[in-house]
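Reminder to self: tokens first, then the designed residues, so the page reads top to bottom the way the pipeline ran.
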């Protein structure tokens, strides 16, 4: 009997742990009973390769968080624009992130910068500026690691740009969602066929891969928030696994 997709998504949970620190999200839930998350990114956030809009990772994340945080008002706003660079997203940070007043922003970026080889020092400055803007607005930021790609050798500087992203997250004390390690683990486990994870273009995820991303993000966010008492409703929201 085939193993259910959701179980397969967590097969390597201890190897690629995601344990974010989310004080703004916890405070928002306690004081308002609401949790707004902005998913800022490029085509992987927009859902390129998914069979339908509700198969994108932000859509899966919203469904999962609503299920697991009963009594809370949860909204995940998808601000993915295909082909954009980190700088393009930095220019959108005010209108598409800060003006939405989220508690969390998940910033999926760098892959297009790596492909175009914009310069590692330039990228670091852009990331630091974006992190600073979110921090000044009191928003919890989660940076998303680059994807594992079956043919990433096509991009000679891929590992160098990944290193910039990871180093920036570490230096700034920003939570990093380990997408690369997760995808590599799913592929190596042979519980997914290559076609279930990455599309024919060798770059974009398809439905099962997006679902796994959404599930694992939800796992970490719920764990990072913990049990929350929603004062406005006079009740406690306990995470549901």
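Designed residues (241 positions):
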């Amino acid at each position: 009997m085939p193993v259910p997709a959701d179980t397969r998504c967590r097969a390597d949970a201890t190897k690629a742990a995601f344990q974010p620190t989310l004080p703004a999200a916890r405070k928002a839930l306690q004081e308002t009973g609401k949790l707004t998350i902005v998913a800022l990114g490029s085509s992987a956030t927009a859902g390129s390769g998914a069979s339908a809009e509700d198969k994108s990772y932000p859509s899966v994340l919203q469904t999962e968080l609503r299920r697991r945080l009963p009594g809370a008002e949860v909204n995940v706003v998808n601000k993915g624009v295909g082909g954009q660079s980190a700088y393009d997203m930095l220019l959108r940070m005010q209108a598409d992130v800060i003006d939405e007043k989220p508690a969390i922003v998940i910033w999926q970026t760098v892959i297009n910068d790596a492909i175009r080889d914009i310069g590692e020092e330039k990228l670091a400055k852009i990331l630091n500026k974006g992190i600073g803007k979110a921090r000044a607005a009191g928003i919890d930021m989660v940076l998303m690691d680059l994807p594992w790609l079956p043919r990433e050798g096509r991009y000679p500087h891929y590992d160098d740009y990944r290193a910039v992203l990871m180093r920036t997250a570490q230096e700034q004390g920003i939570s990093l969602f380990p997408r690369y390690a997760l995808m590599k683990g799913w592929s190596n486990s042979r519980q997914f066929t290559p076609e279930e994870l990455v599309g024919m273009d060798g770059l974009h995820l398809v439905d099962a891969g997006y679902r796994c991303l959404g599930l694992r993000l939800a796992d970490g966010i719920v764990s990072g928030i913990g049990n929350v008492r929603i004062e406005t409703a006079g009740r406690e929201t306990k995470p549901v696994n």
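The longest strand covers residues 34-41.
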